[in-house]
Amino acid sequence: MFPTWPRRFCPLQALEPGGAPDKLPDQYILSSNKDYIVALTKLQSDIAPLAVNPADPTLASQVANSEGAAKVTVTQVMGTRVDQTFHNENLVRALLEEPITNVDAPLKLGPAAAVNAAGKSFCSRFAQITGKYPFNPASDQDLPRRSVE
């Protein structure tokens, strides 16, 4: 499959076959990396709505599913070739997985951020109530009865 390239370039060549040294590539999406590009595009399209509504568990689940699928495509497009000398496959894998794994932190913060926002809202409303009589005996404002119903 890679007769003209040294084995150390096999992981990279599995994604982007070499071309003429004096010519720039004329396309970046090839049959060898198409599944990976499609998976990243799907992940990106699922992240956009989640960024607008981070508390939505359905959107978070879609992003998590797309993230898992994208990680699977990394293994598929890389193939099984290993560079026994320099282990370039580890670097190639890390580079391919970076845009996928960078989704993890915001995804994990999403539910916590939603809970924190809800807690902040509750605390601000509760502070308005506790500043009035009978919660604050020194207050000259009575708490309206409908506020505690």
Distance between the termini: 75 Å
Structural class label? mainly alpha
Number of domains: 2
Basic shape: rod-shaped
- Beta-strand content: under 5%
Biggest β-sheet description:
none
Computed over alpha carbons, the radius of gyration is 27 Å
What share of the residues lie within helices?
Answer: 55-70%
Question: Count the strands?
Answer: 0
Helices, by number, come to 5
Helix and strand element order:
HHHHH
Uncertain parts: none
The average pLDDT is: 77
Structure, explained:
With 149 residues, this protein is an all-alpha fold. The protein has two domains: 1-15 and 28-102; 110-149. It is 59% helix and 0% strand. The protein contains five helices and no strands. The chain has helices at residues 10-15, 34-52, 57-78, 88-101, 104-130. Helix 3 runs antiparallel to helix 5. The chain is rod-shaped, with a radius of gyration of 27 Å.
Task: Summarize the model shown.
With 149 residues, the chain is mostly helical. It contains 5 helices and no strands. It folds into 2 domains: 1-15 and 28-102; 110-149.
Features:
59% helix, mainly alpha, 5 helices, 149 residues
